[in-house]
Amino acid sequence: MQSNAALEYDYSVAKLFTYTTILFGFLGMLIGTLIASQLAFPELNYMLGEYGTFSRLRPIHTNTVIFGFTLSGVFATFYYVGQRVLKVSMAESKFLMTIGKIHFWLYLVGALAATISLLLGYSQSKEYAQYEWPLDIVIVIIWILWGISMFGLIGIRREKTLYISMWYYIATFLGIATLYLFNNMAVPTYFLTDGLGNFMHSVSMYSGTNDALVQWWYGHNAVAFGFTVPIVAMVYYFLPKESGQAIYSYKLSLLSFWGLMFVYLWAGSHHLLYSTVPDWMQTMGSVFSIVLILPSWGSAINMLLTMKGEWNQLTENPLIKFMVLASTFYMLSTLEGPIQAIKSVNAIAHFTDWIPGHVHDGVLGWVVFMIMAGLFHMAPRMFKREIYSKSLLETQFWLQTTAVVLYFTSMWIAGITQGMMWRAVDEYGNLMYSFIDTVAVLHPYYAIRALSGVLYLTGFLMFAYNMIKTMTASRELTQEPQFKSPMA
Amino acid sequence: MDIRELQGYANFFMTIFLVVLLYGYIIHLYRSEKKGESDYEKFGNIALDDNIDSKPIVPNPKTLKENEEENK
Amino acid sequence: MFHWLEKNPFFFSVGVFVIISFAGLIEILPNFTEASRPVIGLKPYTVLELAGKEVYKKDACIACHSQLIRPFKSETDRYGQVSLSGEYAYDRPFLWGSKRTGPDLHRVGNYRTTDWHENHMWDPKSVVPQSIMPAYKHMFTNIADIETAYAEAVTVKKVFHTPYGDEFKGTREAWEAHKPTVLAEAKEVVKNMKNKDVKDAVANGEIPEIVALIAYMNRLK
Predict the structure, then answer these.
(1) C57 contacts A124 by C-beta, under 8 angstroms
(2) Confidence band (pLDDT; 50, 70, 90) for A2?
(3) Mutate which of A86, A189, A353 to disrupt the C interface (most C C-beta within 10 Å)?
(4) Rounded to a whole number, what is the distance in Å from the CA of A202 to chain B's nearest CA?
(5) At what angle do helices A390-423 and A354-362 cross, to 10 degrees?
(6) Does the CB of A197 have a partner CB in chain C at under 8 Å?
(7) CA C98, CA A26: separation in Å to the nearest integer?
(8) Which residues of chain B have pLDDT under 50?
(9) How would DSSP label each residue in A213-268?
(10) CA distance A291 to chain B (A)
(11) Which of A442, A444, C206, C212 has the most CB atoms around its CB within 10 Å?
């Protein structure tokens, strides 16, 4: 046992990914705020010439937030939580340490190259799968490296049972791997034509309706395995640990896991209601989307009940506040999604701003809140300093909560208004509004959304400032805190 | 039988099969706990007591051996 | 019976993998045989149209425009006949989109002209005063990459047997031989345009992005 006494968890890779989470979070939200403002004030399109239009920037916003911010957050928390629940340190294996480092640096280079490629207009034009084939290959390598890290750690673990968070991380790994590979199947044109044309260009293996099916099977589930599964992994670790309360029902967490795995994948075709996809598949998408409420709420209720008898912590500890609000938004958006997937609702909601509204109450309220809370929990343990400012944390919480509420309420109204106007007919059955009428009416809502973007971004800057100060200037800790994170 | 029909049957029976499996799992979880064979709730403590030198809930025999060798 | 799940990462992973692949296998694969059949009379995109499609992808028009007319009277009144699966047979990738910040474009070729597009892309507000679409003036100077478009045509012919003529071969000579056809098509489009720089460029054998894009827009019917 002597040898173990000096052994400590090694957070060097977790720290690196923490930095990129902050960096890409800022970039992604900055661009998001800019493009939201462009819809309200189109003059803002002309700041960067060809590279500053809404259409060129929008894929960069989505990809930076998904593959930059969220993935960094997933990796950062994995390299932290993974070691702790398996009770094994990365310092114990030189091999895993090296893999972890390569994983990070390749990720950083890949992410920057990918962003530049989108700015230059290299795009497959499939949503959330825009990157062209050379970048896809880099992404696959990054993913394999993560797999080696994960299963390597599992291989040398001391704790035989895999904690539920590990289940979710493993599912994230497998899910994204399968989906990404199949959706990005493409033939590079350069090699089949003796070097004609652009090296980067490729053509999708699937065409038309098939491509749509594969794309939304991917698109929907990339949300599942990028924005839901790993975030659930985080909440199952950070909420119990921060509050000192074990999960309310471990059995329920296991059941929700299998339920989620089984049901989620069916729901993808709800993106294609009333399209040329076969009818039974659309119905399937609708039905399973509604069944999906069960496992999602299973997890969410489990999280909230974890706080049973300890609700006073909600007022005392802002991190608990972040996580409880995140779980609540998770419940909200997993209820909202199935509602939108009901065929008659979808007829109005599809193609309108209600959809970005839905995405953002999930992402801003659930994903970003949970990742920020996770990083705040990790910071005192990784950097051995207390959190720099509690009051800043509180201010940030209320600012960002207001922003999320402004965002989704304005987009709900905008979406339903537009959806109704598109189909409105007069007494003779003629369309009442030309398309541009339905655009002009949205201006106030777009302005509110731009404002909410500014508020949220300000909150994120507070988070970044608080984190950086925690890393560098905060009071040092002599002992690792057991549960509640210390803050000044 | 065309592919559509096959698809329908495959879907139907696989769904039934997986639902049965899921319910089997639920029953298994609760029954084995009732009989005292296993205690799932204790796994929740993995997150709470997660220092590197704290005692694993279920020690991994492989790494346990290594540790013993090191200590010899 | 289920005990090994919690402790055996290998079987656990296999289990997860089987469960998540299940939906994809049942839902997507069998449909492949049918859904890719083209409607009768559908012609593959010309090289110029493909180059225009590339411009459409490059500037992510898909971020605001859909190409899918749903089976509602309000949509068919506004945009034209309902979209059919077979009409997309040569669309790689599909460009249905998911958001209509601007109107649907699946049959835009039926009711908008070259002239209208030229004015609109140069300054959207000149034709639709309340428009929030940005102007795409850079398309009037950027040169379209028709060589890559040709390479795409040859690739889909080789790999997916898209019915392009025998003259489509993956060699530089074949490309040089096909180039005049593309230029001739571009000249047809430019006839109805008035921008002097664009006209000059085409006369000099170069095709600005706007010409390719308009050729693609006009093809959407």
Answers:
(1) yes
(2) very low
(3) A189
(4) 31
(5) 160
(6) yes
(7) 26
(8) 72
(9) HHHHHHHHHHHIIIIIHHHHHHHHHHHHHHHT---S-HHHHHHHHHHHHHHHGGGG
(10) 12
(11) C212
pTM value is: 0.93
Q: What is the pLDDT of residues A372-402, one digit of tens each?
A: 999 999 999 999 999 999 999 999 999 999 9
**Which residues in chain B are contacts of C6 at CB distance < 8 A?**
43
As a dihedral over the C-alpha atoms of residue A32, residue A122, residue C100, residue C104, rounded to 10 degrees, the angle is: 170
Token pair for A86: 């398996």
Neighbours of A95 (CB within 10 A): 12
Q: Is the pLDDT of residue C51 over 70?
A: yes
HSE toward the beta carbon, residue A457, CA cutoff 13 A? 20
Contact C96 A212 (CB under 8 A): yes
Domains and CATH numbers, chain C: 47-219 (1.10.760.10)
| Contact of A90 with A83, CB cutoff 8 Å | yes
Q: What is the dihedral of CA A485, A456, A74, A297, to 10 degrees?
A: 90
Structure tokens at C142: 């950027």
Share of chain B residues as helix, strand and coil, in percent rounded to the nearest 5: 70, 0, 30
Cα–Cα dist C47/C53, whole Å: 10
A367, A330 Cβ separation under 8 angstroms: no
Helix, strand or coil, per DSSP, at residue C120: helix
Given a cut of 70, whether residue C27 has pLDDT beyond it is no
Nearest to C26 among B14, B24, B25 (CB): B14
Chain C interface, mutation test: which of B26, B28, B35, B46, most C Cβ atoms within 10 Å? B28
* Of residues C53, C67, C34, the one with CA closest to residue A210: C34
Closest CB to B60 among A7, A159, A247: A159
Two structure tokens written together for A421: 């106007």
Residues of B in contact with A85 (CB under 8 A): 46-47, 50
